[in-house]
Amino acid sequence: MAAPNPYSKYLKEIKRGGTTYKYYHLPSLSKYYCVLPYSVRILLESAVRNCDGVQICESDVKNLLAWETTHKDSCELTFKPARVLLQDFTGVPAVVDFAAMRDAVNELGGDPLKVNPICPSDLVIDHSVQVDVTRTPDAAQKNQDIEFERNKERFTFLKWGARAFTNMLIVPPGSGICHQVNLEYLARVVFSDGGVLYPDSVVGTDSHTTMINGLGVLGWGVGGIEAEAVMLGQAITMLVPQVVGYKIVGKLDQYATSTDVVLTITKHLRQVGVVGKFVEFFGPGVAELSIADRATVSNMCPEYGATVGFFPIDKAGLDYLRQTNRDEEKVQLVEDYLRAVGLYRDFSNQDQDPVYSEVVTLNLANVQSSVSGPKRPHDRVSVVDMPSDFQQCLTNKVGLLMCRISRERQRTWDRTTHFLCWCRTLCVLNATRVMLRSPLKSRSWVHDKKTASRSTALCSGVIPSWKHRQASHWGRPLGTLSLVSAGAVVLIGLGVCAGWTADGKVVYLRDIWPTRREVQVVEKQYVIPAMFKEVYSRIEEGSTSWRALQAPDSALYPWDPSSTYIKRPPFFEGMTRELPSIKSIENAYVLLNLGDSVTTDHISPAGSIARNSPAARYLAQKGLTPREFNSYGSRRGNDAVMVRGTFANIRLVNKFIGQAGPKTIHVPSGEVLDVYDAAERYAKENAPLIALVGKDYGSGSSRDWAAKGPYLLGIRAVIAESFERIHRSNLVGMGIIPLQYLPGQSAESLGLTGKERYTINIPSDCRPLQEIQVQVDSGMTFPVILRFDTEVDLTYFRHGGILNYMIRSMLG
After folding, report:
1. DSSP state, 700?
2. Nearest C-alpha neighbor of 26 from the set 15, 42, 14
3. Which residues contact 715 (CB under 8 A, 6 or more apart)?
4. Cis upstream peptide for 354 (omega within 30°)
5. Which distant-in-sequence residues (6+ apart) come within 8 Å of 119 by Cβ?
6. Within a domain: residue 175?
7. Looking at the domain assignment, is residue 13 inside a domain?
8. Tens of pLDDT along 226-269?
9. What is the DSSP string of 668-694?
10. pTM for the predicted model, two decimal places
11. Domain interval for residue 785
């Protein structure tokens, strides 16, 4: 039972606009508060405010106040974020799970209306638009109309969710990508709940949720399953973080971009080694970076491996709130609160610099213009080195351009008549500044608009407004600048370069590249608060198509058996009120034997559904044609499709097979089968399954189906050399046991082929990070670490997963 908050004595008041607010005066807690990293202060505030003796204890507060010591000791911490952010690919399965939980609670005799987000949750439907129509001025609108019809079932279901669940905002399609909407509209910076002020913080179902740290909002990506637990009021269990202080000094060259800065910082931090750590930026050079610049740096956290890349809020942050049409009274309240609790930052004041685990420094004057990608954005090549790198790319198997050129495929393209049709999704995070450079460049270099066909999905709903304002100013639209798709160039194996005037003179990038000052002037002139007011005042209404959708108005969702998009998942079938006993795994077969760096996309691809795949066969049996298959990402609400798509990536390399492909061996018979078909056969034989994997299992973007899919295939344990942080948590959340070889050991070093049978004895009184034994039918035994890292992990496992635990909690 929750106890009274022992820190209530630290409550103080702020008055603003005739209203009195309360807040916890953190500086009064300890003299050591003023030396804590700003990101740790936010964790501390949450612990103080939520201290109930059950989920959050006084020990959490004390461990954070003693951060200088505890961050070195792998000390455990529980944290309650202020809100949850979902995008539709991960949001649909979350709402499906909530709907299924309502059914389960109802069937077990409970009140289904108890199943609601407790923590404020925002779901942004930011689907990507497929290109069906090209070469017409209204191509973009037509493609959006087709996309809406294609995804009508999903959108109808989400509209039901918007009505059925309280404390959940669902932003209709066409508003922009979730991270940009989060930055421009959803971010509170400071929350007010029941008259109590506290810092905004967020966990999101996308690894790039970290972008919001650029605005002083602490946030990072978690698995979809863990996010659902937070939505239901559960705290996140984590270790007291190490915080690397990243000091920025100097001034940036006028031709350098935020992309140049982020690539430099990313490469530097990868060299420093910040995996699993917080990075906090400080120093006078931070003031040189706009909020868009900072957000871009924070967005790259997954590429340099940090949990967050945090920028405390300063005057630039407050100005950004005003620019994006936040209420002035609210902005003043934000400033009052942040100053009162020591969370407002003056980067030029060294007296405000906290103590960090370690400090590294970047001089902005050393940042050079560079290029990167497209497949590995954390790699970079300086522009001055591009000529030699480009030449090397022509013959290297893998280079920055990721293309191979054979002599017979080299060709010269007529620069006036032959351009490739291109499709571009503007998922750039500092969208305004990146796009503002386009008209500035095109003033000096514009081709005939007939040479390119365009369909653009914009990251921010504000972009069309200032795009129109720019067009009226310069006399011609952005669309007159012809671009060639790098993806298409790579696909057909071309090595390309461009840049000549009509009379044959070479055009260099320096001739057309705008300075940062030019961009800042244009941004101030054309990106104005009125645009944000116009767009976001109607954001919840959605388009005409969205408003016309007829969604059910019931508390329980009326599942349609004929739907191929939305299906009630089987996770809670056979569930009882009573806690099940812990069962060991006996004589399990290995479904897959995988190597290093198996990503969530290998495990649960989000792309197109191959026509010869089990998922395609299932959809064909439902009467769908290949044109109607859509993608795995769009069908995340249907477990029958998703389980058939698990390990269906054509680039998956299974050691049983020896070549890329979504195949495995049914060990008893030796037959080579699709992974799903093999798992189905094992299920008929009542044979439990495990997987053997290498290092960094589950790296890449967080995907709940990368854990749900293996669970439905029958995999009950994964033995790995190491796990990606979010994916390990997702496995636990689905009741799959994560096991890790001892340091230096692997399947190869132990002589495991994967064709053995494995017995894993799980003690009924197992402890976090306990060493247990795995028995092989060959007679050998080897030790592994039980990667239940916390007592909370064990609690979820005993219940069969996070959602099962929450259902039993609601049943009392």
Report:
1. S
2. 42
3. 591, 689, 690, 691, 736
4. no
5. 80, 81, 82, 83, 84, 167, 230, 231, 232, 233
6. no
7. no
8. 898 899 999 988 889 999 999 999 998 888 887 888 889 999 99
9. TTTEEEEHHHHHHHHHHTT--EEEE--
10. 0.81
11. 585-606+650-810
